[in-house]
Amino acid sequence: MNWKDFVYQEVIDHCNNTGSKTFSLQELLNAKLATFQAFKPENHHIKEKIRQQLQFLRNDNLLSFLDNSGNYTLLGVLLDDEKSETAAIDLTRETAERREYLVETYVRKAKWAKQAVELFGHHCLFHGCSNTFLREDGTSYIEVHHIIPLCQGGEDRLWNLSVLCAHHHRMAHFADISTRMTVEKILLNEVATRIER
Ligand SMILES: [Zn+2]
Ligand SMILES: [Zn+2]
Questions:
Q1: pTM for the complete prediction?
Q2: How many CB atoms lie within 10 A of CB 162?
Q3: Which residues in 165-180 are b (16+ Cβ under 10 Å) and which e?
């Protein structure tokens, strides 16, 4: 196996372990340094080697990189939690954006989904919207949404997570571009305010 394939495999493993598709180079090295060293014991510049491989993976559109935060986000791959919870849907037939919407709608156990509901609760963040219904288990129905989709450079981090009712979630994904931009702006502001509190 070459360096790039090996690093890619270990990145997916790391993301499965943390339950998030976003990671920094340092987090990856903290978790995987010994694994990388064992792969090529003769290499004495592991950190630079890994940085270079992440750049190659980014060129292949397997990762995205946000310069403002130093984090990488895994693209186009489902983590184990997401795979098991969306097993009934054939996601291979969907476009990247619609796939993201479907995964967000059906996945409840992934770390990003739990974090968002813990922080934001069960009320739609769109302008005090109160649209919800009770599930069989007594909890209010809510959907978790990545404000900037991962496939468009968003991250699996709190600043980019939100909770929406089913109607506003569809709006955020499928409305005309100016409506979608407005929703994005409202949510980024709302979430930034709540995180600071
Ligand atoms: Zn969404
Ligand atoms: Zn709503």
A1: 0.89
A2: 28
A3: beebbebbbeeeeeee
The CA-based angle 78-157-87, given to 5 degrees, is 20
User: 3-class DSSP state for residue 86?
Assistant: coil
Q: What type of residue is 65? A: F
- The ligand whose atoms approach the alpha carbon of 142 most closely is 2
Tell me which residues have their CB within 5 A of the ion that is ligand 2. Answer: 124, 126, 129, 131, 165, 168
pLDDT digits (tens, 9 = 90+) for 15-65: 999 999 999 999 999 999 999 999 999 988 999 999 999 999 999 999 998
What structural domains does the chain harbor?
3-74 (1.10.10.10), 80-196 (no CATH)
* 87-111 tens-digit pLDDT: 999 998 999 889 999 999 999 989 9
The bound ligand whose nearest atom lies closest to the alpha carbon of 131 is 2
Between the CA of 70 and the centroid of ligand 2 the distance, in Å, is 32
Q: Ligand 2 centre from 82 Cα, in Å?
A: 24
What gap in Å lies between CA 168 and CA 184, rounded to an integer?
11
